[in-house]
């Protein structure tokens, strides 16, 4: 196995504790494998006496597979995640804590199934008002920070704390442990029982820990308990890539390691085999502004270099259009497969404009680690509120009457429906006119709904409609409910309301626009993205860690997004800088940063991120000028009438007339076997669209 000088030094060092600071793309996994091979083949250490701990199942499986293939050891079973190691430990030592040997483990899906089934009558579960992933995340925080149950004065969180206590008790009844229990009980046994602690300290001759920057204080205490200050232990991590503080990752631990262990040697891996010189230059410039780090620069191994590009949009939508244009250029002209291109962003709500643009153009994409925008629970619920305000029918009401919880279950709703049917009216008509028995908990919802239904016809301009919707959702408790659990979900709701505002052009067509808007949203959420091209990746920075792409578009690079508005005020700017650093170092060859102007949900002006200036780099500005051929078709398009179109798009050529579900009618400028370039009206401009896209029709 070919190694550079520093990698070889790491492999050979066995004198005592070793701290490896591994920059992005520096071949750390390769070095870990080489170290294991050296320990087994050269130093003749029994594989069972080696412990390897990493952060994810994916990483653990990769190391195990590479050991099997490269070293030829089929039964190397000593690679664990922290949770799988804790499970292994408890299987042997659970008796010391009076835990049943017959316990079983709840993984994430098991947790959700148990909660949904056993606590189906609890308020949050019965009305499906909270995402189970969010609930489990709150349980996690309460497990590791029990004082929050007492100190928190938020009524929703107090209710969840009570549900958490019931969940804990039920686990005991059925002898079940979740992943948090594995860590906590292992730590407790090791801290309380010196005999067990000493036994495990003798168990391993060498310990390797990967992704050390991501561990929390509980995991670190377990590690300290099974080692001593002179142990032969190697930790591998990079404080510059610590981006998981929200789930407990403690950046201080990689520095504390030097104090807790004796004569620690530090080796820095800073030769980057992934990215170009320019990408590493801006990464180095950015991260050098952080104080809490091990100071080093990433040095490029590759000699080839590409200028880094900057895309500026006058709005979010124009930013998305320019980015997708550039992606199509890379795909067609530079022959980069779509699966080698990623759109990366700080938070999931940024994906909305990109998903709409991609769907409209028929480009296949996947959202990694999350739902597509129109499939997100809070977005669907907001659309259901709009649907009800338009239709006021029983079905639409059934979707929103208990969001957030108002104690209206299926039985109560059936009673309301039966009363309304007897009077041959809708439920809403009965509630509005007080013609049926009204549960007290519904009164606020009824009053606020009556208000907005009276106000909608009176608004002087469409621009007031988003404010009206926001006020309504606030007054009925919808916004506040999500504010208690997830800022990101609130931003998704706000993003949807912004989208509504963008769609409406005239006050007298507000209702028609709403109908069309809801129809289009249904099309977006049901679109089948199987196409002639492979998947483009949409992904958050956090989900992208450990991945790499030929081309990366880091979008929404705006102040209050990256860095986030909360981080600015909470003095967490260094972690935001690390998040940006991780995002840009996913790129191998092409890197684009994109930001936009305009105003946010509260009409504050958007600005480029402060990090743009910290890069201290002369970016190549991507300025796509209007295609000259566009002007030929502007007047011609006004005379189009939508009739006589078909889905047969064979032999498309310049001059053909086409129709698109979202962009309207247009004229083909050019076409090849996969894409067609179409000039639409001035609101949509020139677009490149997949020929086989279901939204695109050809005039007969």
UniProtKB/TrEMBL annotation:
It catalyses: ATP + H2O = ADP + phosphate + H(+); Couples ATP hydrolysis with the unwinding of duplex DNA by translocating in the 3'-5' direction. SUPFAM superfamilies: P-loop containing nucleoside triphosphate hydrolases. Its EC number is 5.6.2.4. Pfam families: UvrD-helicase (PF00580), UvrD_C (PF13361). Keywords: ATP-binding, DNA-binding, Helicase, Hydrolase, Isomerase, Nucleotide-binding. GO terms for biological process: recombinational repair. Belongs to the helicase family. UvrD subfamily. This is DNA 3'-5' helicase. The gene is pcrA.
């Amino acid at each position: 196995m070919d190694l550079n000088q520093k990698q070889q030094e790491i492999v050979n060092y066995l004198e005592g504790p070793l701290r490896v600071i591994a920059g992005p793309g520096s071949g750390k996994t390769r070095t870990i494998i080489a170290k294991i091979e050296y320990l087994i083949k050269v130093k003749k250490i029994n594989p069972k006496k080696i412990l390897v701990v990493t952060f994810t199942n994916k990483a653990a499986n990769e190391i195990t597979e590479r050991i099997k293939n490269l070293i030829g050891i089929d039964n190397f079973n000593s690679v664990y995640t922290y949770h799988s190691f804790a499970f292994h430990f408890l299987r042997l030592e659970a008796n010391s804590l009076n835990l049943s040997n017959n316990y079983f483990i709840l993984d994430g899906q098991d947790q959700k199934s148990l909660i949904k089934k056993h606590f189906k009558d609890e308020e949050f579960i019965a009305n499906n008002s909270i995402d189970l992933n969010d609930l489990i995340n709150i349980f996690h925080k309460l497990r590791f920070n029990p004082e929050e149950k007492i100190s928190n004065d938020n009524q929703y969180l107090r209710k969840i704390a009570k549900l958490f206590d019931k969940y804990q008790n039920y686990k005991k009844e059925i002898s079940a442990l979740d992943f948090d229990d594995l860590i906590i009980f292992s730590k407790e046994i090791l801290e309380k029982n010196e005999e067990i602690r000493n036994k495990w300290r003798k168990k391993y001759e060498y310990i390797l820990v990967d992704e050390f920057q991501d561990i929390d204080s509980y995991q670190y205490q377990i590690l300290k308990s099974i080692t001593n200050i002179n142990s032969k232990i190697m930790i591998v991590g990079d404080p510059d890539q610590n981006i998981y503080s929200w789930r407990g990752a403690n950046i201080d631990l990689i520095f504390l390691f030097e104090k807790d262990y004796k004569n620690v040697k530090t080796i820095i891996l800073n030769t980057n085999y992934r990215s170009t010189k320019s990408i590493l230059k801006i990464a180095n410039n950015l991260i050098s502004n952080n104080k809490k780090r091990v100071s080093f620069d990433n040095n490029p191994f590759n000699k080839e270099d590409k200028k880094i590009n900057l895309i500026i949009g006058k709005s979010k939508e124009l930013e998305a259009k320019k980015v997708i244009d550039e992606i199509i250029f890379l795909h067609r002209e530079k022959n980069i497969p779509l699966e080698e291109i990623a759109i990366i962003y700080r938070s999931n709500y940024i994906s909305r404009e990109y998903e709409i643009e991609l769907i409209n153009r028929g480009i296949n994409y996947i959202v990694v680690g999350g739902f597509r925008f129109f499939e997100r629970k809070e977005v669907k619920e907001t659309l259901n509120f709009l649907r009800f305000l338009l239709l006021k029918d029983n079905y639409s009401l059934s979707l929103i009457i208990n969001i957030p919880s108002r104690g209206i279950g299926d039985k109560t709703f059936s009673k309301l429906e039966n009363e309304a049917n007897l009077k041959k009216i809708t439920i809403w008509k009965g509630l509005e006119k007080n013609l049926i028995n009204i549960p007290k908990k519904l009164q606020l919802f009824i009053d606020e709904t009556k208000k907005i239904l009276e106000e909608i016809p009176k608004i002087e301009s469409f621009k007031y409609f988003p404010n009206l919707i926001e006020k309504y959702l606030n007054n009925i408790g919808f916004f506040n409910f999500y504010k208690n659990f997830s800022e990101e979900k609130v931003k998704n709701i706000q993003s949807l309301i912004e989208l509504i505002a963008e769609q409406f052009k005239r006050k007298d067509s507000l209702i028609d626009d709403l109908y069309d808007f809801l129809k289009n949203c249904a099309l977006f959420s049901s679109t089948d993205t199987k196409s002639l091209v492979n998947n483009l990746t949409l992904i958050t920075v956090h989900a992208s860690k450990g991945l790499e792409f030929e081309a990366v578009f880091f979008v929404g690079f705006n102040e209050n997004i990256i860095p986030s508005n909360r981080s600015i005020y909470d003095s967490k700017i260094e972690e935001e800088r690390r998040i940006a650093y991780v995002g840009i170092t996913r790129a191998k060859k092409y890197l684009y940063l994109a930001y936009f102007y305009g105003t946010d949900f509260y009409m504050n002006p958007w600005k480029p991120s402060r990090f743009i200036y910290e890069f201290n780099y002369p970016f190549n500005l991507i300025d796509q000028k209007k295609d000259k051929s566009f002007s030929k078709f502007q007047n011609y398009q006004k005379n189009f009438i939508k009739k006589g179109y078909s889905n047969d798009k064979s032999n498309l050529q310049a001059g053909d007339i086409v129709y698109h579900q979202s962009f309207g009618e247009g004229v083909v400028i050019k076409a090849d076997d996969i894409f067609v370039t179409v000039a639409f009206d001035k609101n949509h401009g020139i677009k490149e669209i997949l020929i086989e896209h279901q939204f695109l029709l050809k005039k007969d």
